[in-house]
Hints:
The complex is a heterodimer. Chain A is mainly α.
Amino acid sequence: MIVAACMFALVAISASLLLSAYRLIAGPDATDRILALDTMVINAIGLIVLAGIWFGTAMYFEAALLFAMVGFVSTVAFCKFLLRGNVIE
Amino acid sequence: MTTLLEFVSAVFIVIGGAFLFVGSLGLAKLPDTMRRLHAPTKATTLGIGSLLIASLVYFVGLRHTAGVHEILITLFLFLTAPVSAIMIAKAHIFRHQQVQQALSKDTGGSGWATLNAAPEAVQAAPAHAPADSPASPKA
């Protein structure tokens, strides 16, 4: 039952990664691309958590935590650069 | 008991995958940036929260290991998703003249913080100011 649910979620998350990649490539403005990148990071965290459940190991959660932190910091840095022309003033 | 926990975990995994897909579908389909901002910040956060609940049920209930990491990831993502959303919205307001003119007047008298933070930067270096240009503020 868990394996079937994981297969469904794997297909859904892969499709959503593809949709975010479409927005990343086609997005008309830089803010759209930042938003698409942020969504891709969250989808990647979902994939890592899913792999942890599927293989039954808690080893992957450090990677997910690091992904969450790096994704947030990079989003804020991109937005700060667009707003002020600089990241650290 | 084991079957019940497995069923609950599987249901949360399915809900999480569906909401992650809905969030990205909205990101790809909605017509402009302010509307596109809604889908990833709400549906995707709900989806990832549901996946982490599934993981918590699975590891604590079935494998008897502590689920500190899931709680940490959930807390961090739920705290940072609104912050990154408001940063993207501020950048979008800052970069588009017609969006700025469509904003309603504030009643407090201090103006929109996005536009008032650095007025010389708004006038002198609108969008693509390089990091070391003389027009950038306090470089």
